[in-house]
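Example A, followed by Example B.
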Amino acid sequence: MTTLLGLAGSLRRGSYNAALLRAAIELAPEGVTIEEGTIRGIPLYDGDLEAEQGIPKSVQELKERIVVSDGLMIVTPEYNNSIPGVLKNAIDWLSRPGSDIARVFGDRPIAILGASPGRFGTAMAQAAWLPVLRALGARAWFGPRLMVGSAAQVFDADGKLVDERVRGELTKFVAGFAKSIRS
């Protein structure tokens, strides 16, 4: 059994990226489980807060979920052609203290995918994540990219993935990522 942890990088209730993660959970092949993590409740990173109170409980719990997973799926929005601040903030907290980076991220398989209302999907955000993953020592997966554009036409009003082409691409994406971990 391969267990993946998925993180949607938006806090919005109607997030297309949260909907994409839910669809990935639904479409996971036999032998693959995707668990949904959350970045909700993680405060803005503040070195003074860390020095005074240590690592917040929400961060500690998410770190442990990453550590016990076989791989991490980052489902990223694209804000202003780059990484969303709230998701980058969560990763920054997860990398604290620096002595814990190798345990949480070191050689950890990570796949990046995302959805956007724009036509070009999340191409720029996905590219912007690569130097961050490299700095953390993670193992970025370079299988077929999944950048869902025009998300309002791909998901219905309830956040259900209704586009059959995207469903097929997502199914292949998850299966390919899981296979790369088992290899």
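Example B, a separate protein, is given below in the same form.
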Amino acid sequence: MKLYYSPGACSLSPHIALLESGLPYDLVKVDLRAKKLENGDDYLKVNPKGQVPALQLDSGEVITEGPVIVQIIADRAGKELAPARDSAERYKLLEWLNFVTSELHKNFGPMFAPALSDDAKAFFKDRVMGKFKYIDSQLAGRDYLMGKQFTVVDGYLFTILTWAERMKFDLSDMPNLLAYKARVAARPKVQEALTKEGLMKAA
């Protein structure tokens, strides 16, 4: 498999999933502004959407959209990165993946837009903070979103939390969320992903 990524972007989520899975993969860096690969090739020929992540399977087929990609990785890993397909727990995972992608990820997008006014960005920040408070309440007594087991949605939420840190969100009144972020950050494979993307210095 081949993962197309940009450092610190939402592609960090499937990168974490791949490392946690133990599956072999190649990592290909994308210049999102230029839509070019490191060798100068046109990224739009890989993914016409022009976004990351994209996962090229061994068959040559390219899959896009992070929540789908991480499930493919989990299912191929055969580990407990996602509950079994058709189980009640799998649908709960889908619920969380959908929440993170639609309620958090999509509300962060405008805050990265230079053209947007500060007032508009404040609107989206307030909206995201409300979602974080909900997650904080759901994490009471849990190690991870699905309970005791780390799953692919945790890599996704952690990625979003790195953006919140970059934007200096004050999460000090959300102790469950802060403890969760620290717990995920301490995982060796998460640290490996951050190091490989140049977001953390190697120990």
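On Example B: The first strand starts at residue 2 and ends at 5.
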